[in-house]
Amino acid sequence: QVQLAESGGGLVQPGGSLRLSCAVSGSIFRTLLMEWYRQTPGKERDFVARVTSSGSTNYADSVKGRFTTSRDSAKMMAYLQMNSLKAEDTAVYYCKGSNGLDTYWGPGTQVTVSS
């Protein structure tokens, strides 16, 4: 069974950086489109970034130029490097893996940007 687990969240001051990691168990990592979403209380889960199996990336306008996503197939990991963090980036961040047949979500990790 495929499982995803995020790590790296925490409290950071505005302007700071965090790197989130998403560990994927199971041998299908290479086939997965890996995405990052975030959610705040009472709101829908919003798309943040994606990296395809070939390494192409896309970003939400709100994070372009500040966030970078990547993947390491050997380690079966996806990453979200977050720089120049703002208070409005505060949310629970989720990683998602999908391959057109199945979709997998991690449990999420809290990111709080506050002074």
Structure description:
- With 115 residues, this protein is an all-beta fold.
- It contains no helices and eleven strands.
- The strands form two sheets. Strands 2, 4, 5, 6, 9, 10 and 11 form a seven-stranded mixed beta sheet that branches. A four-stranded antiparallel beta sheet has the order 1-3-8-7, with no helix packed on it.
- The chain is globular.
- The model has no long low-confidence stretch (mean pLDDT 96).
Topology:
Elements: E1 3-7, E2 10-12, E3 18-25, E4 33-39, E5 46-51, E6 57-59, E7 67-72, E8 77-82, E9 91-98, E10 103-105, E11 109-113
Low-confidence stretches: none
Oligomer: single chain
Integer-rounded radius of gyration: 13 Å
Give the biggest beta sheet: 7 strands, mixed
**Backbone structural class:** mainly beta
Shape: globular
Order of helices and strands: EEEEEEEEEEE
Number of helical regions? 0
| Helix content bin | under 10%
Distance between the termini: 40 Å
Portion in strands: over 45%
Mean pLDDT score, rounded?
96
Number of strands: 11
Summarize this entry quickly.
The protein is an all-beta fold and 115 residues long.
Task: Name the features.
single chain, 115 residues, mainly beta, seven-stranded mixed beta sheet, 11 strands
